[in-house]
Amino acid sequence: MNHIDMVLVEDDPMVMAVNEGFIKRIEGFSIISTARTGQEAITIIQSLRPQLVILDIYLPDLDGIQVLKEIRRQGIPSDVIMITAAQDVSTVQDVLRFGVIDYIIKPFKFERIQAALNNYQSYYEQLRDRGEMNQEDLDRLIKISTVGEVEFNLNREGLPKGLREITLHKVFNYLNEKQLCLSAEEVAEGLGLARVTARRYLEYLEKSGKIFLETRYGFVGRPINKYKVKL
């Protein structure tokens, strides 16, 4: 798996340690550097150009908004997730105008940053190695629901060990797009997964009530389990 390079910007050593601990629990990310001041953050981001920056607003010199504006002014193509205690509407609007991927308010639980990083990983993987995108791809990327699409939210605390949310979404979305009854083997082939892996995700989705199971019997051999998204 390709890891997403990250830089963490936080002036409080204890908060930095907590954030690092949370991120190390999430598969697919690599912390390549940290910064405790705004100017240090700009210098590191200029040099390393990470895919993702976790940025606090309240820093001892430049604030996080100034850092965000400066890296945008320089055209540095790093995505930014803001983690801060700032809750005023003007601050939220300001950073959203400069294209942050997410905004997390302190204090926060592990599940919130896990959701943010899983969403970013999905976003990153959808864009990687693409030359162009059609309207359906773009709508899915920016979370626009069209008629007939199914809203899909899972309780991450209930996810069995060994299952990853990003793969769960891929399996569900594949079934949702096909709108057909598909076997684990067909889903595995379509997504490039092992059949046993696809079956585990399908069984979890069926038990969660997101999809339904249909058992089909042929003339010979074992019955085949087919899965389809509930309409």
TrEMBL record:
PROSITE patterns associated with the record: RESPONSE_REGULATORY
UniProt keyword annotations, A-Z: Activator, Cytoplasm, DNA-binding, Phosphoprotein, Transcription, Transcription regulation, Two-component regulatory system
One GO term describing the cellular component: cytoplasm
Name of one Pfam family that matches: HTH_64
Stored InterPro entries: 2C-system_Tx_regulators, CheY-like_superfamily, DpiA-like_HTH, Sig_transdc_resp-reg_cit/mal, Sig_transdc_resp-reg_receiver, WH-like_DNA-bd_sf, WH_DNA-bd_sf
GO MF annotation list: DNA binding; DNA-binding transcription factor activity; phosphorelay response regulator activity
Domain (Response regulatory): residue spans on this chain: 5-121
UniProt-annotated location(s): Cytoplasm
Tagged with keyword Transcription regulation: yes
Cytoplasm is among the record's keywords: yes
SMART domains, alphabetized: REC
Main location group: cytoplasm
Modified residues (4-aspartylphosphate): D56
PANTHER family reported for this sequence: TRANSCRIPTIONAL REGULATORY PROTEIN DCUR-RELATED, TRANSCRIPTIONAL REGULATORY PROTEIN DPIA
Function: May play the central regulatory role in sporulation. It may be an element of the effector pathway responsible for the activation of sporulation genes in response to nutritional stress. Spo0A may act in concert with spo0H (a sigma factor) to control the expression of some genes that are critical to the sporulation process.
Protein name: Transcriptional regulatory protein
